[in-house]
Amino acid sequence: MEMSQQTASFNPAGNRVAAVCDSNTIFLFDVRNDAFSKAATATGSEDAAFSVSWSQSRPHFAVASQDGSTMVFDERKLNRPIAEFTTQRANSWQPIPYRVAKYSPSGCTDLLMFCEQTAAVHLVDARSYSGEQVLPALPPPHADCSAMPTGSHSSLAGACFSADGGHIYVGASLLCCCC
Q1: What is the DSSP string of the chain?
Q2: pLDDT tens, residue by residue, 16-44
Q3: Considering the entire predicted model, what is its pTM?
Q4: Superfamily classification of domain 5-140
């Protein structure tokens, strides 16, 4: 790949990797004897992808993108996503990018988590890709940020499930900008 790699994720069997870069193309590689060979590509969102994650219980992977979409693909049918989630904010024409997509670990309820850049974590039942819940993770940019330096706000930088799937951990970075 001749562009910046964002992230890659192995499937549970360890024989396939999904990778995303600074484009809307998703690359799938087969892994045999520690060698990688390009197996397929899929077209995701309208903009660059940031994160990819494999389901631990199904042949599905999710991709979070700059254009405010998270798409779920079945590796056996790459021609179109089997589920899609987009950010929608009242009074805003610009989508909020999704930065992270993560499936819960095996042995617990099948959940898909995807995180907005600015303030929210979304959880979806990964068995049916329904029942979306939106959890506030950070104060919005125009909230009372008295504990933060003037003119700054936080941005979600990463997220993960605990090993048993019982907790979600969200990392944030402090950005300097006018709010």
Answers
A1: --S-EEEEEE-TTSSEEEEEESSSEEEEEEEETTEEEEEEEEE--SS-EEEEEE-SSSSEEEEEETTSEEEEEETTBTTS-SEEEE---TT-SSPPPEEEEEEPPTTS--EEEEEESSSEEEEEETTTTEEEEEEE-S--TTS--TTSPTTEEEEEEEEEE-TTSS-EEEEEEEEE---
A2: 999 998 888 999 999 999 899 999 999 87
A3: 0.83
A4: YVTN repeat-like/Quinoprotein amine dehydrogenase (2.130.10.10)
